[in-house]
Structures are given as C-alpha cells and as structure tokens.
Automatic annotation (TrEMBL):
Protein keywords: Cell membrane, Membrane, Transmembrane, Transmembrane helix
Signal peptide (residue range): none
Compartments where located: Cell membrane
Membrane topology: Multi-pass membrane protein
GO cellular component terms given for this protein: plasma membrane
Protein name: ABC transporter permease
Organism phylogeny: Bacteria, Bacillati, Bacillota, Clostridia, Thermoanaerobacterales
Amino acid sequence: MIKGRFPVKDDEIAIEEWVLKNMGVNPEPGTKINFNLYGKKTNKTYILTGILQDRPRLKSSGQMEAILNLNENDSYKNAQVYVKFDENTDINKDIQNIAKDLKIDNKYVRKNNMLLESLGSSKKIDPTFLLISLVAGVVSLIVILGIFNIAILQRLSEYGIMRAVGAGSLQILMLLFYELLTLLLISIPIGIVGGLAGAKFLSSIAGNLFTECKVDIKNIVLSPRVFLMSIIINLISIIIVTLITYRSVKRLTLIDSIRKNLNTDIKYKKVLIKTNFLYRILPFSKYISLRNIFRNKKSFYMIILSMCLGSTIFIVSNFYAELTAAQINKEAETSKINTDYKIEIIPGTNLSVGIPLEDIQEIKNLEGVEEVKTIQPIYGRMKLKKENIAEPLYFEQINDSPYFKEVLNGLLVKEPNSDEYILKNDIYGYDDKLLKEMKKYVKEGQIDIEKMKKEKIAIIAIPHPMNTKHLSPDVVNLKVGDKITESFRKDGDTGEEFFRMEDTNAQFKEEEFTVGAIVEKLIDSSDYYAGNNSVQVVISNDILQKISGFKNYRLIDINVKPGYNSEKLYNQILKIAKRTQGATVLNLSNEKQKIKAFATNQLIFINTIVIVLFAISFLNIINNVSYSLISRVNEFGMIRAVGITNKEFRKMITFEGMTYGIFSSILSVIFGLTGQVILFKYLGPNLITPKFTIAWKIYLFIIIVNILLGFSATFIVSKRVKRMSIVESISTIN
C-alpha cells in the first residue's frame, strides 16, 4: 500500500498506481471512479481508498485488477482462503486435520512449500541440501586429512616412543581421535561465527535469489538442522581421518616411527613408471626428482588428484556460471519485463486498431528514447494433420482447462467430416530489430531477414512442457522446410464467436508459410488468445501488413538512454499512446533494473562459491605437496650429504613440483572437459538454446596456476629443508 488503506466498505476500492494512470484517474485516496461492470446494465461508482504498489507479474502482461472489500457474511463458491499456523505446532498435521474436519478434498489444498521448507516443516528431503552437505563432507575430509597428516608427521617420533614404552593400539587410536575431537570442539564456535558472518555478507544479495520477489533479510537464523548436519559431517570426517592416520602410523616399525621414516613400506614396491632410461638424457638432479615422484604411486596419485580436484571444480563451476549468465540474460530478454516502456492495445479490440506509424515516429523523436521495436499480432487458426500431433495428451489436458474449455471451446479442435485439426494460435509480425535479436534463440534452421521480408517464411516456437516421463518433447511434429497453413479473420474481429469457432458466416483469408527456423522462445508476445500454450508463428512485419492489410501496431517496446527513465518521458509517451482508444502504457524501467540487479547478484553468489571451493582446493594442494616432501626430509639430507649444492637441490625440488603441475594440468583439461560435457547434458534440456563453449583462457589459467602451485609449494619446503643441518635432516628427530 503506497497511500491510503484497503477497502472496508462495499463501495470502496484499491487499485495499483499504473492502472490508475492508464485509466486517467488521479492517484489520490478519495477520488471517485465510475465503472461499467461486465454483465451489468447500470454503472457503479467506487471511492478510491488505497493506491497499491505495482505488481510486476500482472503489470508486465497488462492485466489490470482492483481490490474490493470482502463481505464475510456472503457465501462464495470459489473463495481462496489463506491460513496462518503457529510455527511451533505440527503444521502438516494441522493442515490435514482442517481439511478433514471441513471435508475439503486434498486437490483443493495447496501448501506454501517454500515457507514450510524454510521452517523445516515440509517433511521432504531437500536434494540440493543433501548434495551440498555431501560436497562439504568430501572437501572437509580431504582438507582435514591433508592438514592432520602433516601435524602427525611432525610428531611421528613421539608416537613411536609411546609405542616403544608400551602404549597399545587402542590407546594410540583414541589419542588421535581425542586430538581431532578437541580441534572439532574448538572449530565449531569459530565455524558458526564465520558462517553467520558469511550469511550476513551474502544476505544483501541473497534476498531475491530464492524467492519470487525481493526480500530484505533483516535477521539471520541459525537452523538447528544445518547446525546438526555440519557437526555430523565433521564428526564422520574426523573418524575417517583418525582411522586412515592410525593405519599409517601402525604400519611403521618402531624404529621408522622414531626416525620419522615413511619410506620403508614403499622402497620395495614396483615403481609407477620406469625412469632408468632418463639417466642419460636428464641432469642428475632432475633424474632423481622423477625417480622420487614415480616410485610412490599412492603419493603421486594423491597429489595429482588433489590438484586436479581444485582445477576441475574451478573449470566446471566457471562453465556453470557462464551457462547461468546466458540463461539469466535470455530469460530477461524473453520475459515480459524486457523493455523500459511497453505500449499494448487492450485485448478484445479489433486487430486493425493500434498505434499508427506517425505516432510511433513521434515517440522515436522524443528526447531520451534510444530505440522503438514494433509488433503486429493477429489471431490465427493453423491446419494440422493427425501425424503432426506429437503429444495428444497435452492437448487433451489443455482443452479441459477452464479458459480453453469455456472461452476458446478448445485449443486443438478436430474439423468435422475431416481428418484435419485446427490449432488456434498467435501470429506476430516482427520488425527487423526483433528478427535480428531472434537469431540467438534458433534451435533449427536460420533466420534470413531480407528473405523473410520478401517471401512467406515463418519462424515458429513449439511448446515442449515436461511430460509424465520427465521428458520435454515438442507437442507437434513440425520441422524446418515444412509448409504450414494459417487462416485469420479478414475484418480483424476478436469476438466470442471467433474464439469459439462459431463465426461460420465470417470471411477468412488463408495463407501458406514455409518454416524457416524453429526457436526456443519468442522475445515478445501476447498472453491473450492462445499465447505460448500453442505454436507461435513469427513473420516479417512487411509480409503481415501485405497479407492482412492492418497497418497499425498493437505491441510496442521502447528503450531509453541511461538517465532518461523519468516521469516526464512516461507522461509524454502516455499522452501520445492515449490518442488510440484502448492503448495502455507500462513503465517497466524499475522492474527491468531489478531483474538486472538480480542477475548480477546471482552471478556474484555463484562466483563466491567457486572462489571458496578453489581456495579450499588450493590449501589442500599445498598440504599434499608439503606432506610428500617433508616425509622425505631424511632422504634429502642424504642427497645433500653426497655433495649436491644448494642451488642444485633447489632446482631438483622445484622441478619435482613443476612436474606435478604439468601432470595435473593434463588431467585437469581432460577432467574439466568431461565435467563440462556431463553438466551440459544434464542442464541442457532446461536451458534456452544453450551453447557448449570451451573457455581456452580458463584452461590456460589453470595450467599456469597448477605449475606455479607446484613450484611454490616445493620452493617453500626446499627453503625449510635447507635451513636444517645435514645431520639433522638425516636423523629427522626434532
């Protein structure tokens, strides 16, 4: 409510501001409005008590509604009743009890699942929440294992001494577990504070990501379910880490444990790749590095896979972000809120009625107007054969729905005494700008604008809702090159008889078109008549005017230059449009900006998650490489003892790190491409004309980062080893 209040008397009314402006009514409470009510012989006067905020969904499609007082003493056959429950009760049980007591069939009861899920009362397992929990668990397990292995390695001699003085296996196991459990208890409050801080940071952009409208998040609530799940995930992780670490400690002899020698169990195993032939090719230091890398298969696999994991996550997440960005832009372009101002002619008027060309030219000349796009819709009837109907069940369900059954007398109608069917559909004449923009939505064929302006070539959009098998096939069998026959009223009448196909004495014109392209969606269309529930046909404005004789435009999109979305410009457009009876002007500039902000916020949200995952993977890579090198400190001491210089030693270690980077880069490219293909196949059916792209810059970035990571991790460790004396390195007892 912007001004005033909701109606409480029978002669009071509340209306949205944009509706009042198009009615030419002063948007002030107390104004009297005279209505000619449908089906009533007399007019009725209402007192305007409230001005409502514009509702984007209705406003974008030109649906005008008013709110009256609900007289609770009257009986209503089709009343919608909204019920609010105490959040502390069993809401699902209460809903069932009320429906049972009032003898209401379950099909007439609709739950607010979004709210129930947020309250934890939906009693449904959220697959997204489970997937996120699983990913978080795996990442936590890998990171904890990497960090704890290094911590244990540094105290390995202490565990060896404990075993030597009589500590049992169970005591060692419980000691490891209690150590991790203590760290978990310390980390829980830190994690909660960090999680709440992150939630607070993201709350400014998350308010309109998961709801149907913009929501200002004022309070951050810690869900017990999330709290409990995080503890369970980490508890399971530390149990697994404890068992893995215990196994590593247990398999070493007492002497090896005290000396921190982890290589006893691998020195007799078969190496991953034989490197003897490299002795004559490579310098001695690099030859030693390769032998060290390939002799321990487990260490090699762990390091390479950890580096690949982060890289693959980054590549696939970046591809997902690209698909999401393209989808958001296409959804915005094909929504009803894809322009700053929209002029529509009220449905039900004759199709010859519209904004004339001279008025459109005047709008183009207004200061601040950047572009004007024009559309001419007409209502047609497409002839189909039985073999053209791919999904009969779809049309059966549509024909049984109230609007198509009562108003149109069916969307798909069989011709009497014939094998042909009539499909009621909308035909649009697009100008050159819109035809050019439609090229990005082509699924099959191509759009040749110059050819469409001269020949009867059509673009079609076919509905393909999800069926009972969770597939989305086209509801009709039409392909590029097919001929389609359309008929429409010569006089442009849109009365009830035309809708119900009862206008037997009317004159029709029949035209044949060739399907030049099939598109996923139309940039702009009308919700009236058949709308997007039927096959939509687009032809050039030039051809439509030629075959119909209608010269005026019924749908006009107006975009303005930055900084010109003002009330003054809106009033100027409204003044010009009102010269045509039945014209409405929609100011969608604010709604359009909100959609852009929503798209930006959604991408920020996705990229934030990508960065966090990549950062965690980065830390894990450092841990694994460091662990591999630190575990061989005594070996490095022996190499230094036989005379290798510090410079050669540093080159040997960094070469090892760069080798890890090269191998991981090769696998990252393979896994990244595989992940992209799998993701594209999974998401593709639900996207608008998606394109599979390979961002070579991202792959190049990953290759460089992997090599630098390997180099940096080994360089840091090499400096640490160099600071130790040779004797200290060989003994590795600190």
